């Protein structure tokens, strides 16, 4: 039997957080409900951040309340601090994610904190989550390049990934936030990370700004990464990362993986249906 590679669907969160048009909750719910039929095990659907910082995610609790939860699917939410954690718990997210950066410039721009301050905010979240067996995922942004600080040292990525993993994150998602990574810089970064975190606990989160995300996925597959984040229709970007284009498109990653002989467990017809919905939601 062929080996399994999982795609963690990001469309409803990383995909839509950057859209200019205010997307009604009903449209987001329809997208998630479609994605729920596609065979994903994890879908990021919400973000409990300040609505002043990211207005597009303001209806996150309503999205979680409105979706038809499919069996075997975990619906995830971002939580930058305890206020976000309380919001996610109130809305019954199945798992949460904290998000740090490997570069100080992006950390400050995105969450108004130094890396150290952000980790101090995450400690009580991880403590509270541990008490109720709530899975917590950890993101590290700017793993090869930062829009403010330039290239990121692989050792810095390894250090932040290690901190989040040691604090109890079950998986660390490594973000090429602005899509400047190359197979070479991704491989060098992964070589440093794997000294500290097992590759079975690593995910690749690659934006496709320069059209290199699939090559970067190939480089990561060769290093043993078996989980990739992607967004249907190639939606997305981060409002605090200038120039960051969409996430790599789920349908492109799924087709690529299947061509390489991996199993994704996805129903491609449903993925294409969701991709069309996502593209129709997009502001050009
Ligand atoms: P701050 O202004 O320093 O926070 O922002 P504060 O604690 O001083 O609070 C300011 C106001 O925000 C207060 O309201 C708080 O109540 C409110 P006011 O009294 O002014 O009316 N507030 C909140 N409201 C709702 N939910 C909350 C919350 N926390 C405070 N959780 C903060 C700090 C972290 C809140 C802010 O910077 C923020 O929300 N940043 C989020 C930015 C963001 O969401 N970026 C995109 C996601 S990360 C990403 O896309 C990268 C990723 O995909 C990986 C990759 O690609 O690399 C994950
Ligand atoms: Mg992202």
UniProtKB/TrEMBL annotation:
<comment type="pathway">
    <text>Metabolic intermediate metabolism; (S)-3-hydroxy-3-methylglutaryl-CoA degradation; acetoacetate from (S)-3-hydroxy-3-methylglutaryl-CoA: step 1/1.</text>
</comment>
<feature type="domain" description="Pyruvate carboxyltransferase">
    <location>
        <begin position="5"/>
        <end position="272"/>
    </location>
</feature>
<dbReference type="InterPro" id="IPR013785">
    <property type="entry name" value="Aldolase_TIM"/>
</dbReference>
<dbReference type="GO" id="GO:0004419">
    <property type="term" value="F:hydroxymethylglutaryl-CoA lyase activity"/>
</dbReference>
<dbReference type="GO" id="GO:0046951">
    <property type="term" value="P:ketone body biosynthetic process"/>
</dbReference>
<dbReference type="Pfam" id="PF00682">
    <property type="entry name" value="HMGL-like"/>
</dbReference>
<dbReference type="InterPro" id="IPR000891">
    <property type="entry name" value="PYR_CT"/>
</dbReference>
<dbReference type="GO" id="GO:0006552">
    <property type="term" value="P:L-leucine catabolic process"/>
</dbReference>
<dbReference type="GO" id="GO:0046872">
    <property type="term" value="F:metal ion binding"/>
</dbReference>
<keyword id="KW-0479">Metal-binding</keyword>
<keyword id="KW-0456">Lyase</keyword>
<dbReference type="InterPro" id="IPR043594">
    <property type="entry name" value="HMGL"/>
</dbReference>
<comment type="similarity">
    <text>Belongs to the HMG-CoA lyase family.</text>
</comment>
<protein>
    <recommendedName>
        <fullName>hydroxymethylglutaryl-CoA lyase</fullName>
        <ecNumber>4.1.3.4</ecNumber>
    </recommendedName>
</protein>
């Amino acid at each position: 039997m062929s080996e399994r590679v999982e795609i963690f669907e990001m469309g409803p969160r990383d995909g839509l957080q950057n859209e200019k048009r205010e997307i009604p909750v009903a449209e987001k719910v329809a997208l998630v409900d479609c994605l729920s039929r596609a065979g994903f095990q994890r879908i990021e659907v919400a973000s409990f951040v300040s609505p002043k910082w990211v207005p597009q995610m303001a209806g996150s609790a309503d999205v979680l309340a409105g979706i038809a939860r499919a069996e075997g699917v975990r619906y995830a939410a971002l939580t930058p601090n305890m206020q976000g954690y309380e919001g996610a718990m109130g809305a019954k997210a199945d798992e949460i994610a904290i998000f740090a950066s490997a570069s100080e410039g992006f950390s400050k721009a995105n969450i108004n904190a130094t890396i150290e301050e952000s980790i101090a905010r995450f400690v009580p979240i991880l403590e509270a989550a541990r008490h109720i067996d709530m899975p917590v995922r950890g993101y590290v942004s700017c793993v090869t390049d930062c829009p403010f600080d330039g290239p990121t040292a692989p050792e810095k990525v390894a250090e932040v990934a290690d901190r989040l993993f040691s604090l109890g994150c079950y998986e660390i998602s490594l973000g090429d936030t602005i899509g400047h990574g190359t197979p070479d810089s991704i491989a060098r970064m992964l070589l440093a990370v794997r000294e500290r975190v097992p590759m079975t606990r690593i995910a690749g989160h690659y934006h496709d700004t320069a059209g290199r995300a699939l090559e970067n996925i190939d480089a990561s597959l060769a290093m043993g990464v078996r989980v990739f984040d992607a967004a249907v229709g190639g939606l997305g970007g981060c409002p605090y990362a200038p120039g960051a284009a969409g996430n790599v498109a789920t349908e492109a990653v799924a087709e690529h993986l299947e061509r390489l002989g991996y199993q994704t467990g996805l129903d491609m017809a449903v993925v294409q249906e969701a991709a069309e919905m996502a593209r129709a939601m997009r502001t050009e």
